[in-house]
Amino acid sequence: MISTAKILFLFVCSTLYLDFFYQEKSLKKYFIQCGLVDVTSYCLTIKVDLAYSSKKNFVGIDLYGDLNRCFLPKVVAIQLCKAQECLSKISEYYSIIVFDATRPLHIQQLMWDSLKIPIHQKIKYLASPTTISLHNYGAAVDVGLITKDGRIVDMGTAFDYFGEEAHITQEDRFIKEGKLTKEQVLHRKILRKAMTQAGFKTISTEWWHFNFCSKQEAEKKFVLIL
To answer: Which member of 3, 36, 59, 169 lies 3.0 to 4.6 Å from 114 by CB, making a disulfide possible if both were Cys?
Structure first.
């Protein structure tokens, strides 16, 4: 695990990058410098609509500027392409759409500070910057389904919805209670099947979030994106 002292050091270092971010207004350049690759250069059928490149997100702030591509470590990008291949075998009607991927640590801090809900609820949906998220390594993706004619598929809640209906463990109960429909849950299961067949792991509280590996593995394999 990363020590508290090291985390503090990383935060100090991250401030050195802030001028670059705000002067250049381009995370794309920074990601390329960090050795990340554009997923669509490996798979053209994966779509990208980054929620934090606009104000249409839970923070209400454009955090990513002009970024409109999904950048990941090469091995993660290739695995996401495998998930798209698995999805095409399940149904040719859908493609994967990426809502978020690699997330710099300083933006994780901005999100954490902006989310005004009790701490016991906050930690269910957002990793504290002091513990570091797999997104900060590019080792997690937030994805959904989009139809071939460009319609984002209804999963029962919006991406980044902070409520139990986004959880994947009680979906049958939510159907019985009328909180979700059978079709919405079917869509989630299609997405999960494709992603897990490609090796990604689910988390219980977010239907859209998939991990490439554990945090311990990410610390060894990938660069922490400040």
So the answer is: 59
